[in-house]
Amino acid sequence: MYEASSYMMPKSLGSSLVTIIYRCNPANPLQLFKDFKENMIEDFIQQGNRVKKSLKLCVYDIRMQIQQDGFDFNQFLPFPNFEDISHCEDDLVNCTVNSNNLLWNDLNSVQLLAADTILKSIVGLNSQKCFPIEFLNTLNRSGLSSYKLNLKIACIVMFLRNLSVNKGLCNGIRIIVRAFHQNVLQLEIITDAFFGTVHFIPRISLDTSNDPALPFNFVRHQFPVRLAYAMTINKSQGHTFDKVGLYLPEPCFSHGQFYTESSRATESNGLKIQVKDTTRQSKTDNGKTETDNAVYREIFL
What is the DSSP letter of 79? Predict the structure, then answer.
């Protein structure tokens, strides 16, 4: 946990704590939580919450992860004053709503009206709440295909699920759309040892049960692909390209990310990097552009 706290995001650090409790069976899990609580509540503090409220939201989040796996929260983290924390559910949803306020500019008037109606229901957390399909269709989460896929013949897409590792149908692999059929896509793999292999892929059910940022779960029946003319640094691992364009609106925040992306090109002259001027990265007096390279120093000790 000491090593993880130096580079993990607060949400991931909380998930790591739950994993350690399950698999390592620490002698004093409550003390372990107290040692790293300041790291785990940073996200809630940045959302404008006070320390006490942030602590309650963090504990509630951990409790939900433990209970979703069928375990008793009090068995692992026996907090004497957290028996009645149902009110934290309202606060947690409010934080989720506030963090998504910036996305409202992308909604049209009809979608915005639906979103306003939904938020009134979410904040109250009534047992009879209902989420209109129009609102759910606007959600685009990590690992989830868009409600509306704009594809064409010969476009490059990325696979989002591990359907068959033995056949090369793995999460993150790049493929080309060769044909559209009534209920399937005809796809051709263009990377790795399965280059040129053709597959017919149907729609599958994609769910958000593992997404802690949503206050509800829903299932989308869609082709497990996404346009891949551009991809994230993490998704690019294992791929090599003749030409790579790297766009950095902000510096890399995780160990090895900058090296991972800068080494995707087969030759140095095939790599182009665009760095956006911010408070953390900009041009120097001598005309050079600088950005941070996150390195976990302890690995060199």
Answer: -
